[in-house]
């Protein structure tokens, strides 16, 4: 009898380890931070649709020689991955849902991106490296009929390329990290940029800019803007320069058009990571801050600038609309006892 019980136990454990959804996608449990432990992941972008939270990330990939590379070659990100959950504990892994090379005019570099839904269509705003004649970092937009794709280039050219913005701070690579929000009046806005925070309206088709590109002046702004609304306030959260690495800061405004009021730092620096990259969402009555650090070791390769790991913490607002400073923890939002 004892042997039988042990055998059943082993089978159950094996079954758990290989748990899959009906569609055959692998499932895993939230064991604390980092959230995803079988791949290096970065630049989290959460989206809630129909009681499910979808999480889009860039796949940081190790390559031979990565540790000795310089000149920005530390990143090797060739695809975006998608995950989902209905309870923040059990997660489904959909694998790769889009690649920069799905844009015929792009040559690589799946940097930070965001998906948003409008009228049953899912718009994937991406950072990529443009090829001729769009050389430099550029923003592409792909569209799909489901949150997990397939996604197709919506316009056959960049939505934003280097010639459309000033070549001030960070020059040819300042057009990165798009974030999109549809405001209370139904107006869609896109914010992006490294070194400069750009802001523009989108036309109702979501695939064309509407009017001038403006600049939002934010203290110590580096990159990774994220737009969201809580109550009557709009929030522009972003990676700012901390002591020697990025931290997350934020500003608030009565409308996305501004004026934006700086509210201070929301986090400290991420462990072992120069970058941090915020993504904020409300899900089932709670608010979450997704970010990345570089604490995971995989295949003998320690976390590093191009080997980051997505994490998540709960976010709490004060009654005046400011947000409580977020402590970066190992437990994150897992059900683990500590
Ligand atoms: O992942 C590449 C770049 O690093 C992103 O676009 C930035 O936000 C930073 O996280």
TrEMBL record:
UniProt keyword Glycosyltransferase, yes or no: no
InterPro entries: Glyco_hydro_43, Glyco_hydro_beta-prop_sf, Glycosyl_Hydrlase_43_Enz
SUPFAM superfamilies in the record: Arabinanase/levansucrase/invertase
GO molecular function: hydrolase activity
Pfam families named among the record's database cross-references: Glyco_hydro_43
Keyword Lipoprotein: no
CDD domains documented for this protein: GH43_Xsa43E-like
Position of the signal peptide: 1-19
Keywords assigned: Carbohydrate metabolism, Glycosidase, Hydrolase, Polysaccharide degradation, Signal, Xylan degradation
Protein family (similarity comment): Belongs to the glycosyl hydrolase 43 family.
Name of the protein in its database record: Glycoside hydrolase family 43 protein
Species, as recorded: Bacteroides gallinaceum
